[in-house]
């Protein structure tokens, strides 16, 4: 567990790779705010609002130097596009991820939180969609299901999980791998605040996006909380999913609740705009009963 040192006010120092990116930015904003329990050091490939250190994760020596004196590494840097080429995956997601774990070992950093992805098992979704997004579909995939990556990007995340387990077993690191769901920039058209803003928009494209996002969304504050819980756990090894408390959840978050103490506070809306009156009443009553149980 990472905690403030007894007897002083020193906050745990956390190296955040990919600090200028989506989730790296979530963390840097939250942890630079007054009252934060962590001292973030942002690392990015190029200068930007959160890059305290400019370094390439392909450079093991530079990453090891950046990790010196840290209490943890939160490894977010990656080629994040699902359709990333082999060259991009090789350099950023394979070599870069190895370097993050190895830099932690060399610098004596005890914990790594690794940004894995739902795409490590993405083929289940590809085969089951769009019915998988329906509120009355009972299928749930947890951390024990067989890996079924849907892309080279997904393969690279499976590699990162396996590498994390190796560093736990062979080098004594504490590692949490998070299969992160649908996090979005606030200005992204598919962010729920924007996607549900105009309920008169019932185009097939909008309805399809809403149907999926009500199952996979991970809000900014839930994302930050999940990673903070990952930094504070006593567990040496955790593999868990990260989504908000959405009305449909086909990626299991009960494991994250039990093992990490994760308590998501946000949820995507349940109604997407194509329901008839009877279905709307059923959804509202189901949610009311769930909240009162």
CATH superfamily: NAD(P)-binding Rossmann-like Domain
Approximate shape: globular
- The radius of gyration is 19 Å
Helix content: 40-55%
How many structural domains in the coordinates? 1
Give the averaged pLDDT, no decimals.
Answer: 93
User: What would the CATH topology be?
Assistant: Rossmann fold
Low-confidence stretches: none
Head-to-tail CA distance between termini = 33 Å
Structure report:
With 293 residues, the protein is of the alpha/beta class. The protein has one domain (13-292): 3-Layer(aba) Sandwich (Rossmann fold), CATH 3.40.50. The protein has ten helices and seven strands. It has helices at residues 22-32, 60-67, 86-107, 122-128, 152-171, 192-195, 204-216, 220-232, 254-260, 277-292, and strands at 13-17, 39-44, 53-54, 72-75, 111-117, 174-180, 237-242. Strands 3-2-1-4-5-6-7 form a seven-stranded parallel β-sheet, with helices on both faces. α3 (86-107) links the parallel β4 and β5. The two termini are 33 Å apart. The mean pLDDT is 93.
Key features of this structure:
293 residues, alpha/beta, single chain, seven-stranded parallel beta sheet, Rossmann fold
Could you outline the blueprint of secondary structure elements for this entry?
Blueprint: E1 13-17, H1 22-32, E2 39-44, E3 53-54, H2 60-67, E4 72-75, H3 86-107, E5 111-117, H4 122-128, H5 152-171, E6 174-180, H6 192-195, H7 204-216, H8 220-232, E7 237-242, H9 254-260, H10 277-292
Parallel strand pairs: 1-2, 1-4, 2-3, 4-5, 5-6, 6-7
Helix pairs in contact: 1-8, 2-3, 3-5
